[in-house]
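Lab notebook page, bench 4
Experiment: in silico fold of construct C2
Operator: M.H.
Input chain length: 468 residues
Purpose: comparison with the prior construct
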Amino acid sequence: MRTSPSTEYVPEWARRAVFYHIYPLGFFNAPRENSGRSAAVPRLSSLREYYDHLVGLGITALYIGPLFESGSHGYDTTDYFTVDRRLGDTRLLQQIVEELHERGIRVILDGVFNHTGREFFAFRDIREHGRESRYKDWYTINWGADSEFGDGFSYESWQGHQILPALNLKNRDVREYLFEVCRLWLGEVGTDGWRLDVAFEISPDFWWEFRRVCKGIRPDCFLVGELFGGDYRTWVAPDLLDSGTDYQVHKALWSSFNDRNFWELKASLERAMHPEWGVFRDLHMMQFLGNHDVHRIASQLRDRSHVFPAMIILLTIPGIPCLYYGDEVGMTGKVGGPEDDYAVRKPMPELDAEWPDTERNLYREISRLVALRKVHPSLIYGRIAILGAADTTFSFLREHPREVAVVAINGGDQVASLQIPVGEEGIPDGLRFRDALDVDTSEVVVSGGMLTIEELHPGWGRVLIAER
């Protein structure tokens, strides 16, 4: 049996995890602007109302988007040591973390360490004292130019957005400050890791030192970087970050449905994950269908009936799946337009309210998929081999010493029948598969090197499991 490369440097709990990502300022319907003067409002406490929802969905890890004190959207940090007053305070967060841990749910926070807001204390000091500021080297300043705000100097900022001054991470004082931030949240508060904003824009030598600090505080903490493209191994390695967001597979996943072109997904998965020549075969990337920066999957897909087969793929391919809050209840939204990013960051519906998915089928079926993933080692650890790709159908293998899984989906409009060539991957004749999604269906037996699926309904899929 062929095996997948080792990723033992990734914490075992993270390799097995199913993440749930919330953007807290949106989830809890917080005001869009922070005056910096009001008393803390404990909106974060409302998360307790969703504990059973998360447990029922099968979530084992929660990724909470930016929640440090900021001026607006959370990425313009003004105080890394304080929970945003629109959400609550540090003690409340610590209580939430402890309560989630009791339910078997880990917690990672959004670490925005590339840039700050203009009201961050160090940048404010530069504005007040100019060249005399003791923090003048915390940023990259051009004293011979001016900013759009008339500061009397210009500075490097995130992608030219001067509302977000970029920190000088080469400066030792800046690094030590950020490492103290890590000591608070990983150590005293007890969180389990970081999602690291725009990690791809930060030098790997920073992540090398960052990893040593974080792992020294909490050896099993999980470090996942925001990565868009390029060679992920620049940032993800045994001595750098544990994982990164796999935008390359994300794009191929949704566009293969929209374009009726599953060869794109085949090419993307094989390029990345082929156990012999995949360029990222030694990585364990975070896979997703939505987040706070992209169209919600129900709006991204032209046919909403494709949401569930897309979820089947998400929860059965290699990597660490991450669900975006509200996708399981049918929320919609696209970035851009008059609402900009807010369209995909709206409040989470209350559990006793009417959901966009009024039948609540998505929640039920995603819960079943998550449960399947958690009990079948082939879906977590198994190697992948693409078995078939066509305009509207797709099938692949996950193989583990204890079992074999064959996943098939139909993104078309008609019932399909498939002849899947499993013999080419060493699967012997006579091996019997049962459908873990539709347990009442008959077993399927390998014959002549082929696994035959007579009826694969549109907007649906099969997860066939054979024990060894």
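Observations: The two ends are 12 Å apart (CA to CA). Residues 157 and 165 are 4 Å apart (CA to CA).
Next step: discuss at group meeting.
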